[in-house]
Amino acid sequence: MKKGHKNKYIIGIDEVGRGPLCGPVTLAAFCIPTNSSHLISNFPLKDSKKLSEEKRNYFFKLLKQLKNEGKINYSVSHIKHSLIDKDGLSKCIKKGIKRCLHKLENRYKLEIKPDLRAGRGQSRSQASEVSPLAGSRSDLSVARSPTLDTRPLSLNSKILLDGSLKAPDEYKNQKTIIKGDEKVKIIALASIIAKVSRDKIMRRFAKKFPQYGFEIHKGYGTKAHHKALKKYGPCEIHRMSFLRK
Question: For a divalent metal cation, which residues are the binding ones (predicted)?
């Protein structure tokens, strides 16, 4: 990184669903400008699994509101059970991280995309003020300006990952932190996003396969889940590679 260039964004990444017997593994990347840490000062520094479902949903709602306002951004990737069986969990988690970052990268690129419509009733300075974190694609397309930092997100962000997670090699400024979801707030927020997003999917599956109680255990290997498996056998979303262990 050239001298004088500071990271414009900081990204936290975490996963949920590594251990369940069914359903997807879910990755989430939470992105915030480095000068906007005050926006998350009131959020908890806690692993999402240690928060009540009510609190997780409450904080997720606040994060979604900040995203809609263009102040932060996040992306989610669900890697389904069949790919876990086919490729293995480790490869799927890597794929999920890559997908999350590419989603953020594509949104970020819109900040520096020339907009031929800029100037028609809008000055270049006004156009350049649009936040690259806003949710709407039309809101993100702005005119190229000498003041815009045109480095790709991979060279313009610091990435912090939980546990043993690793981002693709092009993201040079990355760090893995053991128990990061309990030590670093942006990782904890990524954990909340991943957990709430995956739980929503598992509640949907619970309606399709009511005999397993997915809405309660979310696919983890509880006594009730094992009892249902013994009685009904696996359904189409079970990870057969996990059941053979």
Answer: 14-15, 162
